[in-house]
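Lecture 7 notes: from sequence to structure.

We start with a single chain of 256 residues. Read the sequence below before looking at the structure.
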Amino acid sequence: MLTKFAAVAVICALASTAGATESLRFGVEAEYPPFEYKLPSGELAGIDIDIGNAVCAKLQIKCTWVETPFDAMISALISRKFDVINSAMWSTEQRRKQIDFTSVIYVTPARLLARADSHLLPTAESLKGKRVGVPVGDTSSDYAMVHWASHGVNVVSYPSQEAIWADLQAGRIDASIESQMTAQAGFLDKPEGKGFAFLGAPLVDPKVFGDGVALGLRKQDQALRTRLNRALAELKKDGTLDKITQRYFSTRIVAP
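Now the structure, written as tokens:
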């Protein structure tokens, strides 16, 4: 039987949870098309925005969006500036030390992007002495530091994806590690991407890249995690997530 004080604590906790989920605040950095970006009108758009709105509709709650730099996303979540990270963040072993994740939503390969005639490959031997751009705080940065930095590859961190593409085009860096889908839509399919290509096979390291993209939340918010997982499972089962991602890609990326 609950004591009086324990019962009061449970009631307060349930009331707090109910209040928190009336409006679900997603943290996002809108600089990674087609996953999250801004339309000319300033409106947020992209796969993750559509998925977030679908989750909120399934839970019958209101979505709000808090724009946050990607490298500050976890600290902002922990300090309660928003409730859930929804910004193409991979669920990795390192990140799970600080926060929890929902079930995996989708998986996209990481690739080396460089000039098509550079003959570079995604190996330490090929990239030795070269400058490789990566977004600060991203899993691609972790991969480059683990596999290449100690072998003479110059890993250059950037605050945004657009800054990487600008320096790649200008020749200030030799290559970059990219989400295949982001780079295809945001760079290669545009005039500035002419002459560039993905080189070599996709990068593989489950310990660094983790399981796939998921929603991130605070470890203590287990009731919210359960609700999000239930909503995502229903959206996978009824085909909603496939329909969302197929608006942007011809290949299936939704995790089983």
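The radius of gyration is 20 Å. Keep this in mind for problem set 3.
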